Amino acid sequence: RVVVPRMLSQGLLLHTQPARRNNQPMDFPCIDKLETRQRDLLSGPEPTYDKIVTGYKTYTHPQFTCDHGGQLSQMRIAYETWGQLNAQKSNAILIHTGLSGSSHARSHELNKSAGWWEKFIGPGLAIDTDKFFVICTNVIGGCYGSTGPSSFDESGARYATSFPLLTINDMVRAQFHLLDHLGIAKLHASVGASMGGMQSLCAAALHSERVGRLVTISA
Q1: What is the mean pLDDT of residues 24-44?
Q2: Among 185, 191, 173, CA closest to 209
Q3: pLDDT confidence tier of residue 219, bands split at 50, 70 and 90
Q4: What are the residues facing 77 on neighbouring strands?
Q5: Which of 20, 35, 82, 129 has the fewest beta carbons under 10 Å from its own?
Q6: Residues 197, 171: contact at Cβ < 8 Å?
Q7: Half-sphere exposure of residue 137, counting CA atoms within 13 Å on the CB side?
């Protein structure tokens, strides 16, 4: 049995006002957290990839052969230093970076922004620049001054995807070319975390006679 309302049965039309929408904005905590984390990363001590890093020095080696056979017509390595090298050149500590780290481990006069190990390197800190001459490089293949895929090859074109395949050994051998250039025969210590820890282990394995102490973290 179908029941028809009286007003409709008498031919009257009912006009109703549409219900007002009262939609409240929905919360997406995971997305909000991701956006906050992204802002923190962009404003942190490590520069973003689309910004030019300043304050580093470079050493250029005439030719470099990689472990897998690739060739670099010249190899440039970016580095920064803190403290003073003593007369015997025996107080040098080499800091190895992680995968995406620049050479800017600590602030200095040429780049006063905080480095990624600002709280560990400096006068009276764990790596004491009152006692040691501290060196940090950007690994070859990196994005912060060292030769990498964005660099130009001998033809004047960017390496891009033709950049040679690299190993940890390659990165460390490049760093020891820099040490040779600086006249440092033996390191007081080789220090690194993450991929830097792999490099510190490799440095001790490749050049045991040139590494006095080894600090490897989370390698």
Answers
A1: 65
A2: 185
A3: confident
A4: 59
A5: 20
A6: no
A7: 29
SS3 content of the chain, % helix, strand, coil (to 5): 25, 20, 55
Burial class (CB in 10 A: 0-12, 13-18, 19+), 85: middle
**Helices in the chain by DSSP H: which ranges?**
6-9, 29-42, 168-182, 195-206
Closest to 93 measured CA to CA, from 182, 219, 198, 30: 182
Burial label for 133, CB within 10 Å (0-12, 13-18, 19+), is buried
| pLDDT over 90 at 131, yes or no | yes
Which candidate, 147, 149, 151, places its Cα nearest to that of 79? Answer: 147
Q: What is the DSSP letter of 192?
A: E
